[in-house]
Structure of Elongation factor G-like protein:
Amino acid sequence: MRFLLAPRGRGVGPNRRTREADVAEKNAGGTVGAAGRALAADRADAIRNVVLVGHSGAGKTTLVEHLLAATGTVQRPGRVEDGNTVSDFDEVEVRQQRSVNLAVAPLTYGGVKINLLDTPGYADFVGDLRAGLRAADAALFVVSACEGVDGLTQMLWEECAQVGMPRAVVITKLDHQRANFEEVLVTCQDVFGDGVAPLYLPVITNGHVNGLIGLLSQKFYNYASGDRAEKDPGAEYAAQIETYRGDLIEGIIQESEDESLMERYLAGEPIDGIMLIEDLEKAVARGSFYPVLCTGSGVGATEVLELITQGFPSPLEHCQHEVSDLSGKPVQDIACDPEGPLLAEVVKTTSDPYVGRISLVRVFSGTLRPDMTVHVSGHGLAERGHEDHDVDERIGTLSCPLGKQQRTTPKAIAGDIVAVAKLSRAETGDTLSDVERPLCMTAWSMPEPLLPVAIRARSKADEDKLSQALARLVAEDPTLRLENNAETRQLVLWCMGEAHTDVVLDRLAKRHGVEVERIELRVPLRETFGGKCQAMGRNVKQTGGHGQYAICHIEVEPLPSGSGFEFVDKIVGGVVPRQFIPSVEKGVRAQMERGVVAGYPMVDLRVTLYDGKAHPVDSSDMAFQIAGQLALKEAASKVPTLLLEPVDELSVLVADDYVGSVMSDLSSRRGRVLGTEPVGTGRTLVKAEVPELEITRYAIDLRSMSHGTGTFHRSFLRYEPLPPNLASKVTAAD
């Protein structure tokens, strides 16, 4: 790493170039990664796929802009406030001044193609964030110097740790008036754990970042003039450098594979700087050491780029995901080889009104070329509305996306990320493979959408287009689920949160021209009888020709919860002919489906047919069906009819600090807390039974209570009687 000691590095081979080579290319009339032409990679070891992770407002998009400008990919960095950044080009992002989509920004530095994956920082858009993690080989955790680390960032750090993803921390906004480098560094070390150490110290004068001090090189890189100038740091920084440098060296040595290095260091022997750099690079690449860099006032972009190209692993070092054939048999011989069998994954799909569907694809093996035919396979997301499918498709053009620009590229080799046009059947999470050897990658983990929102079209014209528009949105977003509830006759969107809902409805209106409005969500209730009674259904009509004649006597009694419906035949002597007994049952079942009080289905009943009368001419199947319906209605007038509400089993995972608040809140929702159990370090799982009526907006409320760190899972448990005061309100409303 040149920024540490010398212009050398790891894992890039003969394609390695120094910063001086980049400058020479610029002076020769070219620009490194110039806009207008696609960046092509010929070798997997000359590619880096890096995802930027951090809470909303941490500065991820701004960092991308400075990295693009530092390599000449753009002439000058854009500003989120001005709506002219490369990553946030969607009109929703421009209007809200925050990222809501995964965006790719490729650039080249030192002969290496870097695919920067800018992700949303708001919890509602975790689907795009997870897509970025899936496509990346390493992660930059962006932390604001004035806001610190939030709960979501901590959870994502732990998620990356579980899969061994290499990580580094970039502290941004050091030029902010509330910035405190030392404080946020301590926070990162406390939250992220061991192995977090700075490579630089910022030099800040009057709120302006003048430069950086390299802790290994012990040099001051002064940016006061705009260009980087190397100087001695001065005696005033000696004590600070010694403290942080000692911690850094000890951290590197602890990760070294040379066990004698620590003994030599403790004995006071000088440690070769080149050896320290090699050990640092290895530790970063295997995900056991996490360097901290810092940026502000245009300072630090070069250092971040050098860390990415020399410290982060190439796709060759990426651990492959689980792969199987279409029969489910595991496949083990897939490697990151451009000459190998094709294996790629759709990490994101978007619908462009002019181009059509565009799929962002990460290639794991083989080479993708325009106009080739591929096998598209999607499995494991049926519960999200994505039916399993296998189909052959011919892809269109390949392009290298830079924000809203699509720059044509001739191919995409293993390890690269590319945009593919005209994959009409491909959805987010689908696998692309050779037609002769179809493969399927294991679907990645996605959180369940838990905020239900009922909608309806505003006009008949909107209603005609709504179904197709929603199908496209669901295909693009695996965190969006569509439900057409047959009981409540409502169209329900299951979203991640309020912000997610707003973006979905905005896309319906702006992208697909479909206007919808929200309506009050109806929870599917049930009805049952509160006691035992007898009733008669009399259907006797004479109309001048064939009349209707059917009389039935039934006894109705409630059954225990979950018992369903039971029909008992106790007719003797043929008072109701045998062929009409099923007709009475059919009529009773039909009336149960419609309900007798509030229009909700009836459950948990035993109906006994014990007497009746028939006419040899006027009795018929339909006559006895109507008699059965009338009998059930009469029974409802004799005993109380209860409304039943669904009760869910709730499992809430929350930080220990918020357990008390969560339990109190659940109790206020008529919930019964069953118990708690510790999960890992610092978290608790709270289990409770809560009526579904009380948790329709729990996704929003829990996020507020837990500051974005809480998650929950719900599953239907049983039906229970609705309290009389609430039941009267429901009955009056219906």
About this structure: The domain at 44-311 is CATH 3.40.50.300 (Rossmann fold).
